[in-house]
From TrEMBL:
It comes from the Bacteria. Belongs to the binding-protein-dependent transport system permease family. This is ABC transporter permease. The chain crosses the membrane at residues 46-67, 117-141, 161-187, 227-247, 253-272, 284-303. The keyword Transport applies.
Length: 315
């Protein structure tokens, strides 16, 4: 007869054996909000197109000499207004024509990218930091701190953006790129502060924030480890879209003669010059206008793609 004890032991061992862990190991690891957003962005054609355009613009801004060997400020009056549409192209550096001083429109287009990108990126970085800090403090602490910072935000928000920037720029004798950055950032942080304040008010009531407080986490740790990472999504969306707006604002101020001025090479400066000469040389106005529109459109497309990826309701 078979040994009943050994048989029972074998059955118990078989029952106690753990299930095959392979299926569980093969299960896809749960992704965070940022992981899901990145997956969605890689599948979004608008994000891909915008990323290629922005990368190309950044490459031009950092290494303009890779795209042209001509000087954007050196002119030759012999080439005065050459290259108008009816005359055709006249060479590699002048295939977009020349302006009234005989300067290459193509070279000025390439070197003007740097000023616009610097203004857009620098202003966006400053307003995101300043507005983000103020909004985070107001939303988290509430009370009199929220009241004080909110009233300060309302005061600056009530000043018309372009009109206020004009007044600020008028107080400077020399208007360089960084002066324009200061003028735009001085009045542009209010929107970021409001967006961050609303996001922090929503996040600070989450369970993980209450748990961190119960465990004795300090205010700094709660703000920068728990609240800030979870409140940054709407700020990133607004900042990405606003970057194109700041580039457009710089061009507008330069067009009005209150922003960048010669000898600084800028699309806004060339657009202002092109308007005065539109009857005799339309190409001077045409090409910087197209370049400005493409740049603003690229950042708006990027912002829309990021917004759709970070908002679960839009997926």
């Amino acid at each position: 007869m078979p040994d009943v004890t050994k048989t029972a032991t074998a059955v118990e061992d078989a029952v106690a054996l753990p299930a095959d862990p392979a299926p569980a190991a093969k299960q896809e690891k749960a992704r965070s909000l940022w992981g899901d957003a990145w997956v969605d962005l890689r599948r979004n054609p608008y994000f891909l197109v915008a990323s290629v355009l922005i990368f190309f613009l950044l490459l031009i801004a950092v290494f303009p000499s890779l795209f042209t060997s001509a000087s954007p400020t050196k002119g030759d009056l012999v080439k005065h207004f050459l290259g108008k549409p009816e005359l055709g192209s006249i060479g590699s550096e002048g295939w977009l024509g020349y302006d009234g001083q005989g300067r290459s429109v193509y070279a000025r287009l390439i070197y003007g990218t740097r000023a616009s990108i610097i203004v857009g990126v620098a202003v966006t970085a400053i307003v995101t930091i300043v507005g983000g800090v103020m909004g985070m403090l107001a939303g988290y602490f509430g009370g009199w701190i929220d009241a004080l910072l909110s009233r300060l935000t309302d005061i600056f928000f009530g000043i018309p953006f372009l009109l206020g920037a004009m007044v600020v720029l008028q107080s400077f004798v020399e208007r360089t790129v960084w002066v324009v950055v200061f003028a735009l950032a001085f009045l542009g942080w209010t929107q970021m502060a409001r967006v961050m304040r609303g996001a922090v008010i929503t996040v600070k009531h989450a369970d993980y924030v209450h748990a961190a407080k119960a465990l004795g986490a300090g205010t700094g740790r709660i703000l920068f480890r728990h609240i800030l990472p979870n409140a940054m999504a709407p700020v990133i969306v607004v900042a990405t879209i606003a970057l194109g707006g700041y580039i457009s604002a710089e061009a507008t101020l330069s067009y009005l003669g209150l922003g960048l001025a010669a000898p600084t090479v800028s699309w806004g400066v060339d657009i202002s010059t092109g308007v005065d000469q539109i009857r005799v040389a339309q190409h001077i106005l045409l090409w910087p206008s197209i370049m400005l529109s493409i740049t603003v459109l690229a950042f708006i497309m990027l912002g829309e793609a990021v917004r759709n990826a970070l908002d679960p309701k839009l997926r």
